[in-house]
Specification:
Elements: H1 7-16, E1 19-23, H2 30-41, E2 44-47, H3 51-59, H4 61-66, E3 72-75, H5 83-93, E4 100-104, H6 112-115, E5 122-126, H7 132-136, E6 138-139, H8 142-147, H9 165-169, H10 173-178, H11 181-203, H12 211-221, H13 229-236, H14 240-252, E7 256-259, E8 275-278, H15 281-288, H16 292-297, H17 299-319, E9 326-331, E10 337-343, E11 349-354, H18 366-375, E12 379-386, E13 392-393, E14 398-402, H19 405-408, E15 412-413
Parallel strand pairs: 1-4, 1-5, 2-3, 3-4, 11-12, 12-14
Antiparallel strand pairs: 6-15, 7-8, 9-10, 10-11, 13-14
Length: 420
């Protein structure tokens, strides 16, 4: 059983908070993880995907909870929003840490009427599809290395080399680990159908579900680009009011992520729109209709998918960090940009640029130099991830780093999975 890096944080949250929510995309492994934890902590497990359990929870939420001992695991809790007021009342009567562990394949915290019920009572963690480190059985050390006072050495291990097949495979457990390559496309098609027909319907009374698949495909085409409501509205044929509502649903069901821009206080004109990201590059390449061979032949598209891949790998590492930095991108109206920016709470930041090339030159560091000038003393260093094999300095605080460092730099063996 592969260990999930969020598991220790989840156990810690259960020791501190009466209610803990583990959210994330459907089929990312939430149920597997909470079943292991339920056995470890002696909790009862119930899934609201079970129609009888769902009916009971909806019919009498307070009575449903009152009849069940704690600790209690409730899987896919977004299917019964009626439970949230009853959960609030139950916690207020007996505020014991670890009473309720909830999972959700839709982000209930984006629904204000539900989020209000558990303010101050709820710990929230996110489980994404497998990271590269989890698949290799190791805990990534990239963020720690990036912020270290002295940049650690990096030796590329041949067995951990990057291959374009990683982009097409993605990180969802079933297509990644269990399915042959020729079955993955069917899995992703079924996955999208399930999310649209079940999770979107649970969240909102959307009358035109047939328009959502087309919108998801458009988002894939524009992945790693700036969110432009007018352009998406024109290309989808949706009014902007409907478009924004649908995008909110794609965010809530973890198909889409928005990467915010980094802003300085120095008066420089910076882009304010967020970037669009797909949650998984296996899903992204399915939507784009490309495989490994097509990616390698279409270098611009390869660069786009690779940037999405790096962004989500860092998102996964941030979500499992005990003291997580914030994740941004940097772009000026003059076109200077850095794909990703990690910023700690003390203000220190690291720029991360992604290049789908085996060789790079001084000109490729233009965006990182612009970021360094914009943030001054807060700039800790700039890292350019590329497809070469050597860590190479390119001036003060600037380094070209092999892409594989993203999951192998300072890596340590993963702890045993719960219940192992």
């Amino acid at each position: 059983m592969l260990a999930r890096h969020v598991a220790p944080l989840l156990l810690q949250a259960l020791r501190e908070r009466p209610v803990v929510l583990l959210r994330g995309p459907r089929q990312a492994g939430k149920t597997t993880l909470v079943l292991q934890l339920a056995q470890e902590i002696g909790a009862r497990y119930l899934s609201l995907d079970h129609l009888t359990v769902l009916a009971a929870a909806k019919a009498d939420p307070a009575g449903f909870l009152a009849a069940l001992p704690t600790p209690l695991v409730l899987d896919e809790v977004q299917r019964a929003p009626e439970l949230f007021p009853a959960l609030k009342a139950a916690v207020d009567r007996a505020r014991r840490p670890g009473s309720y562990l909830l999972t959700g394949s839709a982000d209930v915290m984006l629904l204000p009427q539900l989020a209000r019920e558990l303010v101050g009572r709820l710990g929230i963690l996110t489980l994404w599809p497998f990271s590269q480190g989890e698949l290799l059985g190791q805990r990534e050390g990239f963020i720690e290395a990036a912020f270290a006072e002295k940049l650690p050495a990096f030796i590329l291990e041949p067995e951990k080399r990057f291959a374009a097949s990683l982009l097409v495979r993605g990180g969802f457990p079933e297509p990644c680990l269990l399915l042959p390559q020729n079955r993955r496309s069917a899995w992703f098609a079924d996955y999208l159908e399930t999310v649209v027909q079940r999770d979107v319907r649970d969240l909102s009374e959307v009358t035109k579900l047939a328009e959502l698949p087309r919108l998801i495909e458009l988002v894939a085409v524009h992945s790693t680009g700036l969110l432009n409501h007018a352009e998406l509205s024109r290309r989808s044929g949706l009014p902007q009011t409907s478009l924004k509502r649908y995008l909110a649903l794609l965010l809530a069901t973890f198909l889409l992520r928005l990467l915010p821009p980094w802003h300085s206080n120095l008066g420089k004109r910076l882009v304010k729109s967020p970037k669009l990201l797909l949650v998984d590059t296996g899903l992204l390449t399915h939507l784009l209709g490309v495989g490994e061979e097509q990616l390698l032949l279409r270098r611009e598209l390869f660069g786009q998918v690779l940037e999405n891949f790096v962004a989500m790998e860092l998102e996964k590492q941030v979500s499992c960090s005990a003291d997580p930095p914030a994740l941004f991108f940097f772009r000026t109206h003059q076109g200077e940009e850095v794909d990703l920016v990690l910023q700690r709470r003390d203000g220190k930041l690291v720029g991360v640029e992604v290049k789908a090339a085996a060789t790079v030159g001084a000109a490729d560091f233009r965006g990182l130099r612009s970021l360094a000038a914009a943030c001054g003393a807060a700039f800790h260093r700039g890292l350019l991830l590329y497809l070469g094999s050597e860590l190479v300095p390119f001036g003060e605080k600037l380094f070209a780093v092999p892409l594989e460092a993203l999951w192998s730099w300072g890596a340590a063996p993963s702890p045993l999975a719960p219940g192992s």
